[in-house]
Amino acid sequence: MPGFYCSVGPTFGSVCTSKCGDGVAVAAFEACDNGPYNDSPGNGCTLDCTVTIGFVCKIRDLQSFCETFCGDGIVAGSEECDEGSSNGQPLSACSK
Fold first, then answer.
1. Is residue 57 part of a domain?
2. Domain span at residue 54?
3. How many domains are there within the chain?
């Protein structure tokens, strides 16, 4: 099965685990996996396959797709500003 690596254990038979950093996101074990790009600036996925603060990641067809969430109050990725629910309000420097 893609994303799993199995080894034969001395007493329990084969043991299978996912491997963070291989680019195959296994939802039960990894929040994201962008392969060698994990932890790249603006990527949204860390070296240990967890989601970077300010990002939201979804897994579809064993691939993770990470993006920022405008309006959460966290400046991340390509956002220039994020004032949370104040975005787009009068006197706000941020648009929606």
1. yes
2. 4-69
3. 1
For residue 59, is it within any domain?
yes
Cβ atoms of 73 and 82 within 8 Å: the answer is: yes
Q: pLDDT value at position 27?
A: 84
What are the angstrom distances between the C-alpha of 46 and each of 30, 57, 84?
A: 11, 11, 24
Tell which residue, 87, 23, 29, 95, has the closest CA to residue 61. 23
Is the pLDDT at 1 greater than 70? The verdict is: no
Q: Please state, as a whole number, how many other Cβ atoms lie within 10 Å of the Cβ of residue 44.
A: 25
| CA atoms of 18 and 8, how far apart (whole Å) | 15
The pLDDT value recorded for residue 69 is 85
Cβ neighbours of 66 (radius 10 Å): 20
The reply to whether 11 falls in a domain is yes
pTM metric for this prediction? 0.74
